Amino acid sequence: MSRVTKEIILIGAGGHCRSVIDVIEYIGDYRIAGLVGMSAEVGQRVLGYPVIGTDDDLERLMKEYSDFHIALGFIRSPHRRIDLWNRLIEHKANMPVLISPLAYVSGHAAVGAGTVIMHHALVNASAIIGNNVIVNTKALIEHDAFVGDHSHIATSAIINGGARVGSGSFVGSGAVTRQGAEIPEGSFIKANSIVK
Q1: 8: helix, coil or strand?
Q2: Which of 84, 95, 173, 186 could be stapled to 114 by a disulfide with Cβ–Cβ 3.0 to 4.6 Å?
Q3: Does the reported pTM lie above 0.90?
Q4: What pLDDT, in 10s, does the model give residues 81-117?
Q5: Which listed CATH number (3.40.50.150, 3.40.50.20, 3.90.1150.10, 3.40.1480.10) goes with 6-90?
Q6: Which is the CATH superfamily of the domain at 97-189?
Q7: Are 112 and 131 in contact (CB under 8 A)?
């Protein structure tokens, strides 16, 4: 018997979207009604799901559906993800937290709306993760750490205890922060960096 209870629209149709689709399928609570992509992608399918519109169709889609997820990746800049977030908030769209069943999120942690916790990520006690954040595959957010809104903690990055990642920051794959480190808002931390 299927557990699917709601439909969800994914905004984005690229590589990160494929990973999000995999998480949603594993969760089993949502049926992906369609993807929002670029005009050249409309009519195509991504892992079997149709691209049903572009950003120009968002207002119409928000009248038809209530649940959305921003499935665009974030490498160099968070601005597009932030702009989409603001549009969705303005129209009172619902943006659920998506947590892979293969991840571990402490019951004593807090995770904001629209955030995705990917496969095998770990979020420990008293960690706080903001809205519209990507915690990517095998990332570790340790106890008492803070990750600001619209940030991306890339694959296998480690945010150690009490560290603070400012909003709109990117922490590259394999990067490690020292305990209590402060990463300013809008930072770009290269892969395999050590942040003291």
Answers
A1: strand
A2: 95
A3: yes
A4: 999 999 999 999 999 999 999 999 999 999 999 999 9
A5: 3.40.50.20
A6: Hexapeptide repeat proteins (2.160.10.10)
A7: yes
